[in-house]
Amino acid sequence: MFTAINNGFARFVDGPNAGKLLLRLTFGILMLFHGYAKTQHGVGWIADLLQSHGLPGFIAYGAFIGEIIAPIMIIVGFMTRLAGFIFAFNLLVATLLVGMGHFYKLTEVGAWALETEALYFFGGLIIMLVGPGKYAVMKN
Length: 140
What we know:
This protein has 140 residues and is mainly alpha-helical. The chain has one domain. The chain is built from six helices and no strands. α2 (16-41) packs antiparallel against α4, α4 (62-76) runs antiparallel to α5 and α5 runs antiparallel to α6 (115-130). It starts with a helix and ends in a 10-residue tail after the last helix. Belongs to the DoxX family. InterPro entries: DoxX, DoxX-like_oxidoreductase. It is found in: Cell membrane. The chain crosses the membrane at residues 21-37, 57-78, 85-106, 118-137.
């Protein structure tokens, strides 16, 4: 009985390419909001943070690549696997710089304090691994 229900449902919703498109649009569009904020407020605070860790401040401009260029590439499906890697790497660097003090913390509602960072990071990795699907500028 459960198999019949599952098979019937699978026939109705089987759309791996539509799923890949939805995944790309979701993560790409949501990250663009972060990139837009960087265009409005700059990356000076990121440069200061990098320099406080002994790293060159110009690396802060990489946020524009990870939060604007890579998401646009993901949205349109252009070099999607590379863009997914850049997207995930950007989140890894941001988490290492800003979030590591929260690694073992929970919010007041019981969520992991780095939940959002983890979702974006793994979203980028998943996009890198599954590729763009057929609704993309470059299909592989």
